Amino acid sequence: MLVIPAAGTASAGAPVARQAAPGQVAPGQAVDAAAASFDALCRSHSRNYVLKHYYRGPGKYNLRCGTSSWGWKHIKARHGWNATMDRKISAAFWSGRPNGRGGFSTYTAACPSVEKFRTILGTPAGPYELLTAYKVNSLAAAAKC
């Protein structure tokens, strides 16, 4: 991970109040190496370029560069991209439950279980392509235990 120190600060650990413009990194903000790499790849390839594969048993699901409304560009702009987001997507595919939205979700272990993270599949590139992925913030009605 790369940390960019704020201009004029004595150390990289100093608090920074400035906010970056959309798509930019604010001084002091951590930058995920994969995000920088994906950004470079998407600048030089089409929206259909496959950045990563996720697996569920023998099934393979693709993360493509996409656009502002689907794929990696959408996820990065609307929900943020870092190693944690990547791990959550992987966990949802690998061990999540079908969510009725053409994707998979992870849930809390408590009873009743509550959806924590959701993926949705289906893009102009195909039905097994990652449309979006995000943390579920609202508590949906859960079945009683």
| Residue-averaged pLDDT | 81
Helicity range: 10-25%
Listing every helix as H and every strand as E from the N terminus to the C terminus, the arrangement reads EEHEEHHEEEE
Percent strand equals 25-35%
Count of alpha and pi helical runs? 3
Termini distance?
42 Å
Structural class: alpha+beta
Strand count = 8
Query: What strand order characterises the main sheet?
Result: 5-6-7-8
Alpha-carbon Rg, integer: 17 Å
Oligomer: single chain
Can you give a write-up of this model?
With 145 residues, the protein is an alpha+beta fold. Helices cover 23% and strands 29% of the residues. It contains three helices and eight strands, in the order ββαββααββββ. The protein has helices at residues 33-44, 71-79, 83-95; strands at 2-3, 30-31, 50-56, 59-64, 97-98, 104-107, 115-123, 126-135. The strands form three sheets. It has a four-stranded antiparallel β-sheet. β6 and β7 (115-123) form a beta hairpin.
In short:
It is built from three helices and eight strands. The chain has 145 residues and is α+β, with helices and mostly antiparallel strands.
Topology:
Elements: E1 2-3, E2 30-31, H1 33-44, E3 50-56, E4 59-64, H2 71-79, H3 83-95, E5 97-98, E6 104-107, E7 115-123, E8 126-135
Antiparallel strand pairs: 1-2, 3-4, 5-6, 6-7, 7-8
Question: Which descriptors apply to this entry?
Answer:
disordered N terminus, two-stranded antiparallel ribbon, single chain, 145 residues
